[in-house]
Every structure is written in C-alpha cells, then in structure tokens.
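This part of the workshop introduces the protein records we will be handling. Getting from the letters to the tokens is the skill we practise here. An example says more than a description, so a record of this kind follows:
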Amino acid sequence: MTLSGKRVLVAEDEMLVALILEDALLRQNCTVIGPTGTLAETLAAARTLPLDAAILDRNLHGEDVLPVAEILTRRGIPLLFCSGYGQDSTLPAHLRTVPVLLKPYLEASVIAAICGLFSAPVQPVAPTT
C-alpha cells in the first residue's frame, strides 16, 4: 500500500510528537494537514477540508477529540487514535473499532497503522441520537 498523495490530518498537542508524525508522513509522500493542536482547529479541519485519513490524539490540551471522530466517521474518513492510555471501553459502540496507536510508538508502527486504515473500505456512519 502506498500512502503517496494521501491527505492525512494530524491532531497532536505535543509539538515534538506532532513533528515526528509529520516527518514520518512526509517521508511517505503524504500531504499533512496540520498538525493541529487544539480541539477548535481540529474540528474546523475535520468539517471543511478534503481528507483521506486522520491521526487523532485522544486529548488535546484537556479536551476529548470524540467530536472530531464523530465528524470524520460521518464523512467516511478513516481514523486512528493515539493514546498513552490504551483502549477506552467508554467510547460509543461505533468508535470502539477505531485502531489505537499506543504512545510511545515507532515510526514504522504509525505507517503500518495508517496503511491499515486503507485496507478496508470505510462507510459513513449516521450519528447516534
């Protein structure tokens, strides 16, 4: 699987981690959107920009990125969460299958996880009420 030309949103509030992610994706010839470091920036990008995938830190300066994940899911854009805490059983059922990349991670793990997002088609999901 090639990532060349894929537009990947990176939402990460730790600057060093964001730069490492950006660098890894650029080496794969991706177009990096962001990195965004706040929920507001990330929401704006998720709502309006053409995206192929997203890497979301679960917590951006104390704010949960679940609203962003909901938008991306409705748009049919594959995503993965980055977290130092692992799987979260409190996630809504339709987000429990989103891959989680545990921090700290290796560049190869990030690339493999992003490639994995494109191995199966993602269908838009209707919002839950």
Remarks:
- The mean pLDDT is 89.
- The first strand starts at residue 7 and ends at 11.
- The two ends are 36 Å apart (CA to CA).
